[in-house]
Amino acid sequence: MFGCAGSVTYPDRADLCKTGYHVCSAAEFVEKNGYGPTNAEAPKHHHWADDDLKYTGVGSGSCSAAPTGMSCGANTPMRVCSPDGVDPEGNRCNRVNCGHGDSSKNRYFGGRAGNTTAGTLCCKS
Hints:
4-stranded mixed sheet, about 35% strand, mainly beta
């Protein structure tokens, strides 16, 4: 798995993955990002996963990205975000440090309405 930095819309997310790779699912990111007893290193860029993730929670650090919840808008699902809310490419995440699924543990998901671009997480096919 690797994160390909960029600034593409969700429908164009696969364009950043090279031949032989696919857009990672959120579950693949959590599995491959070194989570265990301690959290993995925080991402430095924002990246789309292949899932249409919804928002649950009350704000940054108290939220989760899941298949059900509040829609963030057409073509703007939750994604993996740097804790800063803005990455070097100018992509934005209104919410940061969110869990995945029903987990309250920070898995570096985030986003929300109006956050229209990101890079892409790519996994070996």
